[in-house]
């Protein structure tokens, strides 16, 4: 009879058919070390032949096991959860007795104590323990949850509850947690790939006292829907808590940490398992998990109902306010350390809420999870609300009103209009024709995008500015520290050259009146304080060696008056051969005077131009003038070759240029001799002078009324320019007579170069040719 029942039990529980059996050596500890391998049988039915095999392995000292769940052999591989099970063991009871009696030693001491008590038990005492176990199983049965199978082992019982075949992993895990708590069962026996003993085989761990495993009860018709079983076990746990005399749930240290549930597939997230906060028994957490539905009750509990609204302008301030709220009080947690609420922790001290400075934080100390949250993130996860709704939830909870000042609303509209207008430069042909030079500038790579981004940053900073005193009364202005803006735009690790280039573009925008520069002393006090702090921090990090580190700009209205001015400045920029690469303060001052230099670079108004630069400028001017006076024209290479700056120790400057290269010691460099024909030095010197020339030439051309142009037939003829000279040359104005010699194509190009706004039709009428010819020539030029 036993054989038939066991066969049925194994086949129903394991696989409705064949299964592998596992053989694990059970000798003393030393022997076990040499026989640690688990032997697996072939897939087989539980038949007489299998039983014979078990006897042979038993004789060799092996215990016989089977795997109730299926889908694989490792915990992660298991996909079929056919039963949940627990292992009640006398040692667990003894341990609980010691702890309940107030044991305070180390886990090792406890272990030794349990072992010695266990081995001193006599038969009657052992049977008494087993009797307690039986009572527990039947108490749960009386509460409407009978077991499917009870297997008696040497020191206790395995109890099984068969599950429907749609059971999910998280349900299995939740059930194991509940059952272990209810039965004070072995915490280790809960893994999906758990091997359990086969009835009617022999337990051999104590070879002097072998024990035959017995199937004590078996009822294949008792089977549970997992979700239903979870609900029923949860009710049992709740009821038992209220009853003192129950044998169930005796060991609070085994209370299940958190239940999980299958989260629905939404917001583009896959189906996945998460903590079920609605069933959590901690303070306000189930209420918080209801989201807005539970909000009024939560406010009542926290005493936050019937309070006046707090008004805030800046969302960042709201965030700061929220972070100061007592997180322990909000969640209703009393203990300092507890099971982390964001993962299924086995450590009762993993979760921790603590105040730091005047703010509160949640920290998990488990390496598996390790979250570190502020109040907003904590609420986001418990409510599972989208980011903005979670924020609204907290605002409502703490009676916070987010308001906008009139100034802020006005500025938002201005920025919005500006951005819309700037976007039109991308496609609006009429606009491009109205402002051809400005269009040319804005269309240089990334420039328009940069200007729009500056507006976006300004928009983001509006709330911060809105709450500053004095802003309301001032003109409509917005500030942003430009270096920070540029770094943000170009991403943290973009190279310094790109930052410099963007910075220069922004300076040119000031020059063109597309932005205003504001001196720090004109800013509200609060902002000046912030700048001070920002500069202090930057100096601490010492990665920036600029003095224009916190230049502040004001967003201006892109109205027609301003754009006319912007177009004029753009025209000036291009007609004077200014470029983004050569634009700087010295050049601006020599072209437009000190006043203009101070408008664009107000923070550098006290700065003197370095002596070296002044002398080099003088020398370049001298060389260019001399060469053009002698033969009417010159070009870069010739100018550079003729520059004489022997007064300056160029070699020392060359050596100095190495000082910023890490690992090169300045002492070594100083003692280094640079030869005149040193190729590196020659190259550096040429490059140095070429840069200075590019910087100085626009002012020279402008002041002397020279021209800069690509060599063409007319110029070659006029000035006798040798054929090997190509590219740009600087030259005197060509006489009327000369222009007559100019061919039509050059004439067209010259006209367009001089004035971008000239239409093709206008050019055609001046030159005396067809419009088609003009458009062909201009196309070739590109
Ligand atoms: Zn955690």
Automatic annotation (TrEMBL):
InterPro entries: DNA_primase_Znf_CHC2. GO terms for biological process: DNA replication. It comes from the Bacteria. One of its GO terms (molecular function) is DNA binding. This is Uncharacterized protein.
């Amino acid at each position: 009879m036993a054989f038939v029942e066991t066969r049925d039990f194994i086949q129903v529980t394991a696989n409705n058919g064949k299964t592998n059996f596992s053989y694990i050596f059970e000798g003393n500890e030393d022997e076990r070390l040499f026989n640690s391998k688990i032997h697996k049988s072939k897939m087989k039915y539980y038949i007489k032949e299998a039983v014979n095999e078990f006897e042979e392995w038993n004789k060799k000292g092996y215990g016989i096991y089977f795997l109730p769940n299926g889908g694989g052999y490792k915990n992660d591989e298991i996909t079929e959860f056919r039963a949940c099970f627990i292992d009640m063991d006398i040692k667990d009871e003894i341990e609980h007795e010691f702890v309940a009696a107030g044991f305070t030693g180390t886990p090792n001491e406890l272990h030794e104590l349990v072992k010695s008590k266990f081995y001193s038990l006599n038969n009657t005492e052992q049977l008494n323990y087993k009797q307690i176990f039986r009572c527990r199983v039947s108490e749960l049965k009386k509460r409407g949850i009978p077991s499917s199978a009870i297997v008696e082992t040497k020191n206790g019982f395995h109890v099984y509850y068969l599950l429907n075949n749609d059971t999910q992993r998280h349900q299995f895990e939740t059930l194991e947690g509940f059952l272990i708590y209810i039965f004070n069962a072995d915490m280790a026996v809960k893994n999906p790939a758990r091997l359990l003993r086969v009835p009617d085989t022999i337990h051999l761990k104590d070879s002097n006292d072998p024990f035959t495993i017995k199937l004590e009860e078996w009822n294949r018709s008792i089977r549970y829907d997992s979700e239903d079983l979870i609900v029923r076990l949860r009710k049992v746990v709740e009821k038992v808590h209220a009853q003192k005399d129950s044998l169930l749930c005796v060991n609070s240290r085994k209370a299940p940490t958190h239940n999980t549930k299958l989260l629905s597939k939404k917001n583009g997230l896959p189906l996945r398992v998460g903590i079920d906060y609605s069933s959590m028994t901690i303070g306000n957490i189930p209420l918080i998990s209801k989201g807005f539905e539970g909000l009024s009750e939560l406010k009542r509990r926290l005493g936050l109902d019937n309070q006046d609204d707090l008004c805030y302008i800046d969302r960042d301030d709201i965030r700061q306010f929220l972070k100061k709220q007592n997180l322990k009080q909000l969640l209703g947690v009393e203990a300092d350390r507890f099971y982390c609420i964001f993962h299924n922790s086995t450590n009762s001290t993993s979760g921790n809420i603590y105040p730091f400075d005047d703010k509160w934080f949640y920290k998990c100390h488990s390496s598996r999870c390790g979250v570190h949250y502020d109040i907003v993130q904590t609420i986001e996860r418990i409510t599972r609300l989208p980011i903005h709704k979670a924020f609204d939830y907290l605002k409502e909870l703490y009676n916070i009103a987010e308001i906008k000042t009139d100034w802020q609303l006005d500025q938002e509209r201005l920025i919005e209009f500006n951005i819309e207008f700037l976007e039109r430069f991308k496609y609006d042909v009429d606009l491009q024709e109205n402002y051809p030079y400005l269009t040319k500038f804005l269309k240089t790579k990334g420039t328009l995008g940069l200007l729009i981004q500056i507006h976006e940053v300004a928009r983001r900073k509006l709330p911060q500015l809105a709450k500053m005193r004095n802003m309301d009364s001032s003109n409509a202005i917005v500030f942003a520290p430009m270096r920070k803006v540029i770094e943000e735009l170009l991403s943290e690790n973009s190279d310094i050259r790109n930052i410099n280039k963007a910075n220069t573009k922004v300076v040119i925008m000031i020059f063109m009146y597309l932005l205003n520069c504001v001196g720090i002393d004109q800013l509200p006090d609060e902002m000046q304080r912030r700048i001070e702090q920002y500069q202090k921090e930057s100096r601490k990090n010492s990665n920036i060696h600029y003095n224009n580190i916190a230049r502040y700009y004001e967003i201006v209205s892109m109205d027609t008056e301003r754009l006319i001015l912007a177009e004029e400045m753009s025209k000036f920029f291009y007609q004077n051969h200014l470029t983004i690469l050569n634009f700087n303060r010295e050049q601006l001052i020599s072209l437009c005077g000190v006043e203009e230099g101070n408008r664009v670079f107000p923070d550098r108004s006290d700065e003197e131009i370095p002596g070296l630069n002044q002398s080099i400028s003088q020398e370049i001017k001298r060389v260019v003038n001399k060469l053009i006076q002698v033969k009417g024209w010159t070009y870069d290479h010739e100018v550079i070759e003729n520059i004489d700056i022997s007064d300056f120790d160029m070699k020392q400057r060359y050596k100095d240029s190495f000082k910023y290269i890490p690992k090169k010691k300045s002492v070594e460099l100083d003692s280094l001799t640079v030869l005149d024909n040193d190729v590196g030095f020659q190259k550096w010197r040429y490059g140095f002078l070429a840069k200075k020339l590019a910087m100085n030439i626009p002012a020279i051309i402008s002041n002397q009324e020279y021209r800069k142009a690509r060599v063409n037939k007319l110029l070659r003829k006029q000035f006798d320019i040798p054929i090997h000279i190509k590219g740009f040359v600087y030259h005197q104005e060509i006489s009327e007579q000369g222009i007559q010699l100019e061919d039509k194509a050059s004439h067209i190009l010259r006209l367009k170069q001089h004035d971008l706004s000239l239409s093709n039709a206008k050019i055609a009428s001046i030159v005396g040719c067809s419009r088609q010819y003009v458009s062909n020539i201009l196309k070739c030029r590109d």
